[in-house]
Amino acid sequence: MQKLAIQGGKPSRDISSNPWPKWPVWGKEEETALIEVLNSGVWSYNGPKEVEFNKLFAEYTGTKYSLCTVNGTITMQLALEALGIGVGDEVIVPGLTWQATAATVIDVNATPILVDVLEDTWCIDPAAIEKAITPKTKAIIPVHLYGAFADMDAIMDIAKKHNLYVIEDCAHKHGGEWKGKKAGSIGDVGSFSYQLSKHLTAGEGGSMTTNNADLAEKLDALRNVGRRPEGDSLIGADKGIGDYGDDGNFIQSGNFRITEFQAAILIEGLKRLPEQNATRDANGEYLNELLKELPGISPLKRDERETKKAYFNFAFRYDKSEFKNLPIEKFRAALEAEIGIIVDACYEPLNNCSLYVPHTKPARHKLNETYWEGVNPKRFSLPVCERIFEKESVCLHHKVLMGTKADMDLIVSAIQKIYNQSDELMS
Questions:
Q1: What is the pLDDT of residue 249?
Q2: Percent with pLDDT over 70 in the chain
Q3: Domains and CATH numbers, the chain
Q4: Please, are residues 355 and 99 in contact by the beta-carbon 8 Å criterion?
């Protein structure tokens, strides 16, 4: 029996001779586009590349409007502002997500209400949403997490029943589909991130999508210092919808625009995205079928209503009882040593997250004692989130899914190798 890599044996994959596919992916097309922007002298502010990408991404997501911003955090903040959410309002957020999902709610002086997730998808639990609704509730932010899709049928039914807004956090779901509808086209606003790790990236950046003309105009103004839509910045919108000020300005705001360099990269990346998503989907489906056969390993559920998959990282659940009670930290370390890529836990639950700490900023967030207590994340109980983070989650970068079926076989054989020698790791 081959010795485990973490114990000095030969790894299952020698990345010096057999590296994983690179990320980000770029080529001559990006180089040409960036030089074109450089030579044009138009480096920002509703330039032709940004206008083109907005049009392409709206078409891709099946929405009427798409608008770029500086990142996928500001997208949610501006969505909340455009929907009129603020002081005295509550927004329901899953407890298992990147901290920005909740932090943006605080940034508009509303209160995030953290609820638990489903153990088989790690996405927000519709039953927990129902229980959390109060007369102050104004919106739900479902997060399509890692490879899974939030149950948008149940969420939209709840929203309709209680007259709530829905902001889809699609930072992990560019190109995913629910019953034939793209992520970001189902709720009132879709929020996308183009941060470096995302499967459509320009290093940083974000997009807001919507089918509502009035919302689109507000979002466009909010990202552009409050100005009314200018030129072609809002493709297809009827100008002059709503009245948020005199002709000189539309609404108070700041500068959240991206650059033409980012837009140029996004145009080329969007051309590759469908094929990349298809490759990751095929490999993810193949890998999940193999993982089902391993003791102690459970793939995340793929809902039959999810008609197109889009992976941000590849995640699965681990049961240490099948591995001689090998702690998950040791399992992750052993797998990382075998396959030569970082093996991590999921996000920290927001009720005990080192990055989500509103009480470190009293000058900004302590509006009054009631609000101060309301934004204390530790007041929420999230047992499923905590169990997933502490005992079950295993996450790999999505670039592992951009290889071959032989690469998927290698991951499975590495897990099997650890299983066979878990007693040795315990000792």
A1: 65
A2: 96
A3: 5-18+273-347+386-426 (3.90.1150.10), 28-268 (3.40.640.10)
A4: yes
Contact 307/366 with Cβ under 8 angstroms? Answer: no
259 exposed, middle or buried (CB, 10 Å; 0-12, 13-18, 19+)? Answer: buried
d(CA 237, CA 213): 6
Name the residue with tokens 């909010």. Answer: 222
Distance CA 217, CA 223 (A): 10
| The 3-state secondary structure of 308-339, one letter per residue | ECCCCCEEEEECHHHHCCCCHHHHHHHHHHHH
| Phi, psi torsion values for 283, nearest 5 degrees | -70, -35
- The dihedrals phi and psi of 296, each to the nearest 5 degrees, come to 80, 5
Query: 181 near 168, Cβ under 8 Å?
Result: no
Is the pTM higher than 0.90? The answer reads yes
Residues 6+ apart with CB under 8 A from 223: 67, 68, 69, 74, 78, 208, 253, 256, 257
What's the confidence (pLDDT) of residue 231?
Answer: 64
